[in-house]
């Protein structure tokens, strides 16, 4: 049987990858949990009944695994990717560490999975949760109308920075309700996150942040180089999920009703769009869901051949973990 190793099981996305494996029927005995600085006896849940021992990343023998999914920090992945390849294991990189390397495709299952055949080095990368959420609903539209420009405003939750950031949001919210001081309570965020919106996700690279840069670069790598992308990212005081307002400009004349039809036909995308109070999907509606939800579909009359829409998803599940596991299965199928 295939042996999976998931590196980063103490991270939110790593735990969700384990959840998908359990839901897909993968046996606990075929999964190895790995993380940095894991003392002997550390365990993590797998499904509703099983527990997995967590192996220490520094000493783990990767020859025990057929395929390794990295859900760690980018820095850790860069340190250990060569060790995994030397052990003859396949790799799914969900960290962005291998983004710029030649011969390593970036794949969204259902969008460009045919690129799995170009995985010459035994590594496949997957994009950020934001890009998966953006591009899956647009796959069929791009094929028919050829997208030339995207303007995306992303409202992402504290989970984008991991458990520590979610804890900081909780702590600040509690302190505000208890009328306590927030002094020295900003360890992850550069501003108060509770009851606030912070227009920065990632470090600055010139005028844009690393997440804004990544959305541009990853979209070009997955769809086509001639697409233009302008991304804006902000963190909102939510624990899980991501919302996007998307403006799409195409080469060909596009009708919003046909765009709605194409999205409805896309696996993993749900269109719920009623022009009445509450006739849309909000961030609180999608936690724990596997699909990407579309609402507020409109013709964008400010440009030629334009539409706009609202898009929400559970960034940990639908955005990252589901795609990482799906790509791992594609890579294994190619190997066999």
* Strand proportion: 15-25%
- End-to-end separation in angstroms reads 12 Å
Widest β-sheet, arrangement of strands:
3-4-2-1-5-6-7
Ranges where pLDDT stays below 50 over 5 or more residues in a row are none
- Mean pLDDT over the residues: 94
Query: How many alpha or pi helices?
Result: 8
Q: How many individual β-strands?
A: 15
Overall geometry: globular
Radius of gyration: 20 Å
Helix content: 25-40%
| Structural class designation | alpha/beta
- Let me know the largest β-sheet: 7 strands, mixed
Q: What is the chain-wise order of helices and strands?
A: EHEEEEHEEHHEHEEHEEHEEEH
Task: Fill in the keyword field for this structure.
336 residues, alpha/beta, seven-stranded mixed sheet, six-stranded mixed sheet, 8 helices, 24% strand, globular
Explain what this protein looks like in three dimensions.
The structure is a single chain. The protein is of the alpha/beta class and 336 residues long. 29% of the residues lie in helices and 24% in strands. It has a seven-stranded mixed sheet, with helices on both faces. α1 crosses α8. The longest helix has 21 residues, at 315-335.
Short recap of the structure:
Helix content is 29%, strand content 24%. It contains eight helices and 15 strands.
């Amino acid at each position: 049987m295939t042996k999976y190793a998931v590196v980063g099981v103490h991270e939110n996305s790593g735990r969700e990858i384990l959840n998908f494996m359990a839901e897909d029927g993968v046996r606990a005995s075929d999964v190895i949990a790995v993380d940095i600085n894991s003392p002997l006896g550390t365990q993590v849940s797998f499904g509703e009944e099983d527990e997995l021992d967590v192996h220490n990343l520094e000493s783990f023998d990767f020859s025990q695994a057929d395929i390794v999914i990295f859900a760690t920090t980018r820095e850790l992945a860069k340190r250990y990717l060569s060790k995994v390849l030397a052990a003859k294991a396949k790799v799914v990189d969900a960290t962005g560490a291998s983004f710029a390397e030649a011969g390593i495709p970036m794949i969204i299952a259902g969008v460009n999975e045919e690129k799995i055949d170009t995985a010459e080095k035994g590594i496949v990368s997957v994009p950020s949760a934001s890009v998966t959420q953006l591009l899956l609903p647009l796959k069929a539209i791009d094929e028919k109308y050829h997208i030339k420009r995207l303007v995306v405003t992303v409202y992402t939750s504290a989970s984008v920075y991991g458990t520590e950031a979610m804890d900081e949001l909780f702590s600040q919210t509690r302190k505000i309700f208890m009328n306590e001081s927030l002094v020295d309570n900003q360890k992850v965020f550069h501003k108060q996150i509770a009851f606030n919106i912070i227009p920065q996700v990632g470090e600055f690279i010139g005028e844009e942040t690393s997440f804004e840069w990544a959305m541009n670069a990853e979209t070009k790598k997955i769809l086509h180089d001639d697409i233009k992308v302008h991304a804006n990212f902000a963190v909102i005081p939510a624990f899980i999920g991501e919302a996007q307002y998307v403006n799409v400009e195409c080469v060909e004349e596009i009708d919003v009703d046909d765009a709605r039809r194409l999205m409805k036909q896309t696996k993993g995308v749900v269109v719920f769009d009623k022009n009445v109070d509450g006739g849309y999907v909000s961030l609180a509606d999608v936690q724990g869901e596997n699909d990407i939800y579309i609402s507020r579909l409109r013709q964008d009359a400010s440009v030629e051949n334009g539409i706009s829409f609202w898009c929400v998803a559970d960034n940990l599940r639908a955005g990252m973990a589901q795609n990482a596991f799906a790509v791992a299965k594609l890579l294994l199928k190619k190997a066999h």
